Amino acid sequence: MKIMSNASREPLVGPVSVQSCDNEISSETVQRQGNWLSAVRDALPIVYVAVASFIVNVAWATTPAIWIDEMVTAAVATRPGGVILDLVTTRIDAVHGLYYLAMHEWFGLVGYSILALRFPSVVAVTAASVGLAVLGRLSGNQRAGVIAGMVFAATPASSFYGIEARSYAAAIAGVVWLTVVALWLGRAERRLQCVALAALYCIFATSLVYLHLYAVFVVVPHAFLFLGHARLSNRATVWLWAGALVVSAVACVPFVRLAWSQRHQVDWITTRLPSGSAQLQSLLVETWAGGNPALAAVLVVFALVGLRSLAVRQRWVIVTWMWCPGLTMILFGALVGQSFYLSRYTLFCVPAVCLAVGFGIDHVSSRFSEPFFVSAVSVAVVFTLGLPAYASARTEDGKSGDWGWTLALANGLKAMRADEPSGRAGVALSRAPVSMGGSMRWVITAYPDAFTGLDDVARSDTYVFDFDPITGAVLDAETVLTRLDGLTCLYVLDAPSRPFFSAEQVMRVEEQGFTEAETATTGSARITRMCQPG
User: Fold this and answer.
1) Rounded to an integer, what distance in angstroms lies between the CA atom of residue 490 and that of residue 477?
2) pTM for the complete prediction?
3) Which residue, 467, 461, 466, 464, is CA-closest to 482?
């Protein structure tokens, strides 16, 4: 199989005659392929995409405050591997289990920090941009692939989730590169090479589903890629691909059953999200363009132009990649009476949109005498429209909801501890919720450096799951009052509206020799330092 250029309007993949290839390859082409300098020069556009995407995404990656989903990643991935397995197999978050284990190994290698927490996602969206450029090169239209990679780097999906410590960026990259492997398999001619690529496809597809369950929908466009060209000359390849799918499906059955048993975790989606046409609008505007109608309109126009410039089978591969996952999730939710659709669950469809846009921009620019200039201007328009989302994602409150208080609280605690008296200090973090789905105890998992050297006197000595399966048990104030012996300083983190100690309990703390030394309020949170005299 071989991907042809869009100008030839040939199928996306199809059998290639060795004789026809020999006729097409000129002596000049053979000479260029033998020149390694020319090979490096040919690869430079892809390198440019990699560098540009990485720089765009890593810039200000540590600025936004860590929000609840990222705190879960930090809290779980920093635990021992056995504890992670117990959590995801018996309690919650099976669908994120592989990601947690991978992040656990990553933290073991580089340690925990905000940059370390988000860096894998930066690398993932960079890999996705590079993968799109590779897809363009495999199609014989490298310029369209480079444009697609640049456009993807400008989308809100990249700028927001490229600095999100969750599995979405990795899933995007995985789907793109699984498609690259599928195309390599379709183009392979030697039997051993075909078998090796089919095995790689099987392993890659299985791992991808374990990483992000909904990525299973990428099978649909791959089916059009292979089955649409099941001719006599490539049926062996089709059978190898089908066999790889069967093995992968069998390997994924236990995981799918486990994930289905934990479906209660997404019950909240049905109560919070609209249905029907509103979800379709979300699929088009939120997923593709981060809620920016102008950007969505530009992407749609260029994508339609790009799809129209392609052969019918090419269109089906890209269109099913763009639409099948979201539409299937919405329809399935309607059938079972429970919504499973969120815009971020289908982010791996965005590269297909960008691929169509890349072909569209290339098709339009080829009509002008200066195609490079027109392409550059078109990409610049997409970047400009995506800039507000990029800038917004890199503010302290750039994540979902108002989570700047967590960073402010950590920084406030650091500042307060700058003149901490010598001796043993403790901290009591309230279990009272401060923001959506969170509590004070999340801060210690997100910013552990602010708590270095502090005894967590409000946490149970034995880790249990009786309060929250992520943050663990929180002792009540009465119990904490019995654990203050030997402390010279106590930091109480709570909310003014829901204090950790009652007025009567504060008096009992003071009876143990503590006096209130300092209080600081950061948004909805409060830090109180109580110290022993001297």
Assistant:
1) 13
2) 0.88
3) 461
